Amino acid sequence: MTSILDMMRTYNLIDFKFWIEIAAVLFVMTVGRDAFLQQWLGGSH
Q1: Helices and strands in the chain, H and E counts
Q2: Does the global pTM surpass 0.90?
C-alpha cells in the first residue's frame, strides 16, 4: 500500500509540473504571440 501511495505522490508531483509547463506554453502562445503580432503589424504599417 505504501508503494502505491508513493507512486501516487510522484504522479501528482509530475502532473503538477506538467500542467505548469502547459500553462506557461499556452501563456506564451497567446499573450506573447498577440504582442508579437501587434508589434510586427505596427512596425510594418
Answers
A1: 2, 0
A2: no
